[in-house]
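Quick one: structure tokens for this chain, please?
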Amino acid sequence: MNVKITIIGIPDRLPEFSSELRQIVKSHRIFSGGKRHHELVQCILPEQYQWIDITVPLSNVFDQYKQQQEDMIVFASGDPMFYGFGITLQRELPDLDLEIHAWFNSLQMLAHKALLPYHDMINVSCTGRPWKALDTALIQDHGIIGVLTDRRKTPNAIAERMLEYGFTNYRMIVGEALDGPNEHIYHLSLQEASKRNFGPLNNLILIREKQRAKLHGIPDSKFHILPGRPKMMTKAPIRLLSLAQLELQNKACFWDVGFCTGSVSIEARLQFPHLDIYSFEIRKEGKALMEQNSRQFNAPGINSFIGDFLSTDISELPSPDAIFIGGHGGKLEEIMTTLDRKISKGTTIVINAVKDTSSDEFKRVSKLLNYHIEKPLLVQIDEHNPINIITAKKV
């Protein structure tokens, strides 16, 4: 684009523009924004102005922008560079000549109105996004978390999820229709927020009231397990060593094949909350175990699948760069071959082999697939059989 776009952030009311901004508005003819922005500013726009509504699909809006021969002004809510329209414009029109005049973003305004110091606040957005960013902030136990909501991830839905996964050490401040005539600010417990309905324009700040105890290695005795099968779980020292071999601090997507109780996935979620985790288990009992254990240990966001891994449709799932094979049911070659078609160079696979047959098979298939095999770690815990922790990398 050869024209310049100036984005002016405004509150949810008629803004009191400085003389500089009034002059900028007066000198333009082409304007754009949402319907609400148009209602707020139309009384200060020059005569014979042209307005481009920002509506979905946004591709139509950008096409209109590209056709313009004059510089234009876009009105946006708050700070256009805070999860806002300015970022979208930069992404869609990377060569754009852009100028920003920002107002306070909605979380800043809520902190101001609640007299809340917010210099340490972690900001996350649930607006049209998955739960991951909020889950990560909660697992990391941040002291103050600002949250942008939407029509599905409302304050009461957020409170319900936090209660479900045991994040009861927070209280909530909800800002509704900030800076507008129907503004309300609520200070609520999670229980109170979960039972309340809020207006459509809101955001919230979570305040931690006490720190949660953090575990580095969850005690085995605390897990719900398969009835009568106490050995069917990766023990804590083995879990931690296996996760260390996977180098998850440098990875983005982790798959746990044969999760059983969910112990490896849950440990990974708590130690490395940035990960996307996908877990697979053939036993139907695994569904309840994963749900019970992930809630008990405050580990939301694990994507679990029940059924034979070889029959599971993995085509639409993101490719893992770290894999733990906790169970294979005698089909290790088929599982590794299926995984090999999904993964890229550098992906790490770890298996815990109790029997020599499993160890030998993993090494054989790894060589067949041209993986680099690292020196195994032989570990024995108490009276349990020695376990070979074997790591292979796709080269």
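The mean pLDDT is 94.
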